[in-house]
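Anyone up for a design puzzle?
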């Protein structure tokens, strides 16, 4: 293995099932810059943590574009402005504060926890839907529809409209796939943009309804946001809603699927979870370290020259933060390659850190805890049909495309 090929190997689909040996190799060069115009790649836990908090790094869409095309780039199109995920302070802070007030404390402290009952009902319904089958695809039959249903209910989307979301979400999520973006498929890009526009138009209709008749849902709160910094514009509400739908959905699908895959590879832990559902809290935190759904943060650039470990990174460079490599850094975690839910030191990077830490982390945690504990309880003698399973091409949002599980009975 030559270091000059590491970035290409990390994004190469052939290595998607197990990128961790590549990350181990990557950590031997904590600041990797392979070629002129290529990204500066960081893989040390402490470097990544520091850079996530460094105000000299920018996530602003305009600055990212100026830094050059990135093969993992995640375009936002369809006529909507950039979400706060792709803005810097102070505009980022204004929008995120408004969104936070609708999503959780202090204004809506029980919004997520109050969904617990509905989430449990959705989980039960999906597992009951397996029927007499003794072999399922966990992604298509459970991990994909579950977070869509939850986010739709959080936003206030009528239940009869939930099936329409998959036709919009699929091309948008696939647009995050670097392999697709490298292919230069103009028709695919057109479909993704069209899906974003249709989703935006649908949500615009809901926003207008909530403006006339507010309800007890997140969309109504975003529309009716009031505070010292004013309220969101219509376009900002739409952009925030699309962000919650896409980002919140994909990370949770991968977290649930990676979680079940990991448990099936560690049957003693699965048995412990079956006997003690409360263990799901520890399991999910260790999963976020061991198999994080977001492996790489590629949307960063520096607004001034910075120096890391004696290496000067010129202003306007592309910067990748490989969270999954940092999460298995032996300088930070003891036995980092071991899946250990009893690990005491668990300050992982699975949800990022700093001002752009995952907005929906409380929701994703609760969804995954409920999902894994109930799957463990109800599936009798579950086992993998194929290991490794087929993976999505995406190196950034890494997870199985399908996860076929056989089992003897439903409890």
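Challenge accepted. My sequence:
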């Amino acid at each position: 293995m030559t270091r000059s090929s590491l970035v290409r190997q990390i994004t190469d689909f052939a290595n998607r099932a197990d990128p961790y040996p590549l990350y181990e190799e990557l950590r031997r060069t904590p600041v990797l810059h392979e070629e002129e115009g290529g990204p500066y790649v960081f893989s040390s836990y402490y470097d990544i943590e520091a850079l996530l908090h460094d105000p000299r790094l920018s996530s602003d869409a305009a600055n990212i574009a100026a830094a050059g095309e990135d093969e993992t780039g995640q375009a936002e199109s369809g006529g909507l402005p950039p979400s706060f995920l792709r803005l810097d302070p102070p505009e980022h802070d204004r929008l995120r504060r408004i969104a936070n007030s609708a999503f959780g404390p202090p204004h809506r402290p029980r919004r997520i926890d109050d969904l617990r009952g509905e989430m449990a009902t959705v989980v039960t319904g999906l597992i009951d839907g397996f029927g007499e089958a003794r072999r399922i695809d966990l992604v298509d039959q459970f991990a994909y529809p579950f977070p869509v249903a939850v986010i739709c209910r959080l936003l206030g989307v009528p239940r009869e409209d939930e099936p329409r979301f998959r036709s919009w979400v699929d091309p948008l999520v696939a647009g995050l796939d670097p392999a697709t973006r490298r292919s230069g498929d103009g028709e695919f890009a057109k479909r993704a943009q069209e899906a974003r526009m249709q989703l935006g138009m649908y949500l615009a209709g809901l926003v207008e309804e909530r403006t006339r008749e507010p309800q007890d849902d997140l969309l109504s709160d975003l529309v009716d946001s009031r505070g010292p910094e004013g309220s969101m514009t219509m376009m900002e509400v739409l952009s925030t809603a699309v962000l919650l739908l896409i980002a919140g959905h994909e990370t949770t699908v991968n977290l649930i699927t990676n979680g079940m895959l990991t448990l099936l590879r560690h049957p003693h832990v699965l048995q412990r979870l079956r006997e003690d559902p409360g263990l799901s809290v520890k399991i999910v935190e260790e999963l976020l370290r061991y198999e994080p759904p977001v492996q790489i943060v590629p949307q960063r650039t520096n607004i001034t020259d910075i120096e890391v470990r004696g290496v000067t990174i010129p202003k306007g460079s592309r910067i990748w933060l490989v969270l999954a490599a940092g999460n298995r850094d032996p300088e930070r975690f003891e036995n980092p390659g071991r899946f250990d839910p009893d690990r005491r030191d668990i300050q992982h990077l699975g949800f990022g850190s700093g001002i752009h830490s995952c907005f929906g982390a409380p929701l994703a945690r609760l969804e995954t805890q409920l999902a894994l504990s109930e799957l463990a309880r109800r599936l009798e003698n579950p086992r993998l049909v194929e290991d490794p399973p087929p993976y999505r091409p995406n190196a950034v949002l890494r997870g199985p495309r399908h996860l076929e599980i056989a089992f003897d009975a439903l409890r």
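A detail worth pointing out: The chain has a mean pLDDT of 90.
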